[in-house]
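Study this pair:
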Amino acid sequence: MEDSGHSAAPLGALDGDERARLGARAAEAARRLAGQDVVAVALTWVDVSGITRTKTVPVARLEHAAAWGVGMSPVFDVFLLDDSIVSGRHIGGPTGDLRLHPDLDRLVPLAALPGWAHAPASRYAQDGSVHPLDTRALLRRETERLAEDGWGVRTAFEIEWAVSESHGDGFSPASHGPAYGMTRISELSGYLRDLLKALDATGVRVDQLHPEYAAGQYEVSVAAEDPVGAADTAVLVRETIRAVSMGHGLIASFSPKVDAEAVGNGAHVHLSLWRRDGGEDPAAAGNAMAGGAGPYGLTPAGEAFGAGILRRLPALLAVGAPSVASYLRLVPSHWAGAFACWGLENREAALRLVAGAEGERAEAANLEVKCFDGAANPYLALAALLAAGRDGLSSGARLPEPVDADPASLSEEERDERGVAALPSSLGEAVAAFEADGVLRAALGEEVADTVATVRRGEIALLDGATPRQIAAATRWRH
């Protein structure tokens, strides 16, 4: 996977010199934006429920926002998908405050919302320290932990969405042609053209766009980046899709299950592990997912990284498939990856090795996590994946035998013999696995781990007893 070139700047405590530097940079950026007729900047972060929240500032206040932040209650970390509030051991209630600081490296005018710009926000406490529930900082920390051992990760999200003609509670697909059919492009060619133009104008490098399986469903794939950049881009792409859709009188949903009877939306994650240098052996630098003597060309490090992710998938679902609706999507024989196994180009395996075409595998080979969906906070999801992969590296983990068939087609005895287990079939099962996983809890920190479990249990209680149709309806327009 080719790296798009974005990089994440260090994130530490804010002192007077750093505030002055940020303010000066923002003042220059504000002058540039004003010259482009931008009047406001949306500062966004993603909460534990996977919903993008925002506060906005006029361009004239960008300098102050960069230096001193914008106030926001910490309680948003325990908002549920319906905006009701639960309370955890570390967060909840009306008291307290934190500060949102725009990342000026990712500040960009929004082509789909003329007059507006976007910047992902990092969250700080009032004393200038990084807020413990800032998942963007958490992802940066996990990236730095790998870098300390000489490793980097290139990653990207595939983003699936369904587009509806209806602005009511129901879903009315805006295109009806065959799955993956050119008819679907023709039906919405102007909409898709404007989307590609808007993404290009915001600096997003699109690799491909195509119709997906369900009526009204599409997918866009973007270039790989460093982990923080990839999560930032995932948010930017989704909000661009949302805005372009509205401009065409349509409404987009990234929910894992828009229609209880239809195929759901995934948010597959692609990752490749790269050695920054070869140490005493310069030839050892490069993509650990190719050129090795392991299965299908994996190097020992690439295998260990993938094995670390595979063995923690049940717990990882609490952050990657974090909604009750996620488990309406995560069913066998729907290319959702419902079994904890891996395989070469196996779209029914939760972990798919994408080898790439011969001749470009040194760049293209990567692992695809298929069981994650669009209800996930992309920063939190990637942080957890990196932590799992890092644990695999440190322990020299090995992958089991690959699976070259739909696991659902194997008998229960065959699956047992091959060590293939079904992933959790409910959010409650995933939360139980997450709470029992000491590696993930230690990597994410107690504040984050407790808040994740609290919010997940809150959604379980919120939708307790609901039918699949009621669950889909409650979730449809929230992500």
Summary: Residues 259 and 472 are 6 Å apart (CA to CA). The domain at 16-132 is CATH 3.10.20.70 (Ubiquitin-like (UB roll)). Residues 2-10 have pLDDT under 50 and may be disordered.
